């Protein structure tokens, strides 16, 4: 058993939720919801989160808490003298690559926060588009900001689970809620704000296509940070006295709630001022600054919004770094501080080409994609769904049913029914769903057309 432990269940829930709530949940999911049926898509996302994401999240919790060990060692203990522990290595590698380009976006946010302090010199969407292009094409600025983001992440993880990750999650997650509420109130009081609310939440089942269904499936487990064994490591720090079902359900609920808050904060303001909603960097770094530019105290609200995005990005980054640090510090082979700085520095170096994808390495492409986009495709479309599939098979067919049951019903016999449903989903439904998502996201479906 590791010495590290969460000091409380709420600390574990907030840290897990912080890991799950990243940039995708805040800027991508609201946009896709608006363009894919509004409330109808939210219903599908909720459905798949409960019947795909929740079972996978609970599966990772069971693996970690039953062994009390980080990702690689947990699989080794459950399935000794086998190759199953490579799922742990896959998770570590995936998080390493993910954080290498995720930190680049974190650096962009830090750059814009600096602009907010010193004063943004742009105006209008075209002005902010030019500012964004100038920002990401400056090699020294993007690499410096990426390095600063990694230093913050390293400093927190180096302090440990309780004093670092848990303490910061307890500060950042409530702050994230408060900032959202402030922005929502301001956004909803603008003229024509309800048009944005309708765009985001009004059900339109005619827009639901097979592609929409696949995206809702994929988003249901991507948005919960499952498939990379991060939650295996996080749950290994949880006391044996705590229930696993309640924290897992809480993380699913918080993730959905945050996604809805994001939409309510963004779209009323965007529609009120006549802008077109856009996904990805365009929304965060071009459209929203232009929107807030036209609002009284807009610069203050933009600064709050960027701070909110930075909190969400950092809490996810903590978990990505922690899984590798935990694997290096097992058995006290290396001190936590040394491991955090060594791994963090390596991730920063590997991420530099992604940071330079829009400047000195703009002409470099891999299979027709920039270095940044190639890293994103590798993680999001290949490694994460593959990891999720392997975990679902491992839990369903390699772990003993009695062990699974004892972990899930711990603390309450009334959870026996929950276990039966969860086991059925994990054994027969989840692997099929993940396989469909994997074929679609990897582009392998095109081979059969």
Automatic annotation (TrEMBL):
<feature type="transmembrane region" description="Helical">
    <location>
        <begin position="295"/>
        <end position="318"/>
    </location>
</feature>
<dbReference type="GO" id="GO:0016020">
    <property type="term" value="C:membrane"/>
</dbReference>
<feature type="transmembrane region" description="Helical">
    <location>
        <begin position="339"/>
        <end position="358"/>
    </location>
</feature>
<feature type="transmembrane region" description="Helical">
    <location>
        <begin position="41"/>
        <end position="63"/>
    </location>
</feature>
<feature type="transmembrane region" description="Helical">
    <location>
        <begin position="249"/>
        <end position="275"/>
    </location>
</feature>
<feature type="transmembrane region" description="Helical">
    <location>
        <begin position="84"/>
        <end position="110"/>
    </location>
</feature>
<protein>
    <submittedName>
        <fullName>Sodium-dependent transporter</fullName>
    </submittedName>
</protein>
<dbReference type="InterPro" id="IPR037272">
    <property type="entry name" value="SNS_sf"/>
</dbReference>
<dbReference type="Pfam" id="PF00209">
    <property type="entry name" value="SNF"/>
</dbReference>
<keyword id="KW-1133">Transmembrane helix</keyword>
<feature type="transmembrane region" description="Helical">
    <location>
        <begin position="213"/>
        <end position="237"/>
    </location>
</feature>
<feature type="transmembrane region" description="Helical">
    <location>
        <begin position="378"/>
        <end position="397"/>
    </location>
</feature>
<keyword id="KW-0472">Membrane</keyword>
<dbReference type="InterPro" id="IPR000175">
    <property type="entry name" value="Na/ntran_symport"/>
</dbReference>
<feature type="transmembrane region" description="Helical">
    <location>
        <begin position="171"/>
        <end position="189"/>
    </location>
</feature>
<feature type="transmembrane region" description="Helical">
    <location>
        <begin position="140"/>
        <end position="159"/>
    </location>
</feature>
<keyword id="KW-0813">Transport</keyword>
<dbReference type="InterPro" id="IPR047218">
    <property type="entry name" value="YocR/YhdH-like"/>
</dbReference>
<feature type="transmembrane region" description="Helical">
    <location>
        <begin position="418"/>
        <end position="439"/>
    </location>
</feature>
<feature type="transmembrane region" description="Helical">
    <location>
        <begin position="12"/>
        <end position="29"/>
    </location>
</feature>
<keyword id="KW-0812">Transmembrane</keyword>
């Amino acid at each position: 058993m590791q010495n590290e432990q969460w000091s409380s269940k709420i600390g574990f829930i907030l840290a897990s939720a912080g890991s799950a709530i990243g940039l995708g949940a805040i800027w991508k999911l609201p946009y896709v919801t608006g363009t894919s049926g509004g409330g109808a898509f939210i219903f599908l996302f909720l459905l798949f989160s409960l019947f795909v994401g929740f079972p996978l999240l609970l599966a990772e919790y069971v693996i970690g808490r039953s062994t009390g060990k980080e990702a690689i060692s947990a699989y080794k203990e459950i399935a000794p003298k086998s190759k199953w522990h490579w799922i742990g290595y896959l998770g570590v590698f995936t998080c390493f690559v993910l954080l290498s380009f995720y930190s680049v976006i974190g650096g962009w946010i830090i750059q814009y926060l600096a602009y907010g302090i010193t004063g943004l010199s742009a105006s209008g969407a075209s002005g902010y588009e030019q500012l964004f292009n100038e920002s990401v094409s400056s090699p020294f600025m993007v690499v410096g900001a990426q390095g600063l983001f990694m230093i913050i992440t390293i400093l927190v993880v180096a302090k440990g689970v309780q004093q670092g990750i848990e303490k910061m999650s307890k500060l950042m997650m409530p702050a994230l809620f408060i900032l959202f509420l402030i922005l929502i109130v301001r956004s909803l009081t603008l003229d024509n704000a309800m048009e944005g609310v309708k765009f985001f939440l009004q059900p339109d089942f005619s827009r639901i296509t097979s592609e929409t269904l696949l995206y809702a499936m994929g988003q249901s487990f991507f948005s919960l940070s499952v498939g990379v064994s991060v939650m295996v490591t996080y749950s290994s720090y949880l006391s044996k006295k705590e229930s696993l079902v309640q924290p897992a359900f809480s993380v699913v609920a918080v993730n959905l709630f945050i996604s809805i808050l994001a939409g309510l904060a963004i779209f009323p303001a965007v529609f009120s001022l006549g802008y077109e909603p856009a996904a990805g960097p365009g929304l965060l770094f071009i459209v929203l600054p232009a929107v807030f530019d036209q609002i009284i105290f807009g610069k203050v609200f933009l600064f709050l919004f960027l701070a909110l995005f930075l909190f969400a990005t950092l809490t996810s980054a903590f978990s990505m770094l922690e899984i590798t640090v935990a694997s290096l510090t097992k058995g006290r082979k290396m001190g936590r501080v040394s491991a955090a700085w060594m791994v963090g520095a390596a991730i920063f170096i590997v991420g530099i080409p992604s940071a330079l994808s829009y400047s000195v390495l703009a002409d470099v492409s891999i299979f027709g994609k920039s270095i940044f986009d190639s890293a994103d495709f590798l993680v999001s479309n290949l490694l994460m769904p593959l990891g999720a599939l392997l975990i679902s098979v491992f839990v369903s067919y390699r772990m003993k049913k009695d062990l699974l049951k004892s972990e899930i019903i711990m603390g309450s016999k009334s959870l026996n029914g929950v276990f039966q449903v969860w086991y059925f989903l994990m054994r027969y439904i989840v692997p099929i769903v993940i396989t469909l998502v994997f074929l679609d996201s990897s582009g392998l479906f095109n081979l059969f057309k």
